[in-house]
Write a structure and sequence with these properties.
Blueprint: E1 17-20, H1 23-34, E2 37-42, E3 46-51, E4 54-60, H2 65-73, E5 79-82, H3 86-94, E6 99-107, E7 110-116, E8 122-127
């Protein structure tokens, strides 16, 4: 009898990749408005941004406008960020140049609000 001695791998992090029209503008949005830091830059078209051990990758390419509009109009989040102190975060974001598409609200699963980045990606912030 042959036994499977394979060691299972472990997922350490998940990094969504957003296609962005202007990588410099997107990096500025995430670093100045949301407190991310640039963790790496590859040539002039790809980078990683990180906050609290979580990463998003940005790649220069044209996002599909119809998809961006559909996700925004129907509150389809591209990414959900689980946070602490959501009231403080919401108050801070309200004072920045950030488009809030769903104000802070109470839901059965927690408190949440949604914003859009410059390319129309919908970011949901959730405190459970």
């Amino acid at each position: 009898m042959i036994m499977n001695t394979r060691i299972p791998s472990k997922i350490k992090n998940i990094c969504p990749q957003f296609l962005v029209a202007d990588i410099t503008l997107s990096m500025e949005f995430y670093t100045k408005n949301l407190g991310f830091e640039t963790s790496f830059m590859y040539e002039d078209f790809y980078c990683g941004i990180t906050k609290d051990g979580c990463s998003i990758h940005l790649k220069s390419a044209e996002p599909v406008l119809e998809e961006r509009e559909n996700r925004r109009n129907n509150e389809h989040a591209d990414i959900i960020l689980s946070v602490e102190k959501i009231d403080d975060l919401y108050d801070d974001i309200k004072n920045r140049s950030v488009e809030i598409i769903q104000p802070l609200r109470d839901m059965p699963y927690g408190r949440e609000f949604y914003i859009c980045d410059p390319d129309g990606y919908v970011l949901a912030f959730l405190e459970q």
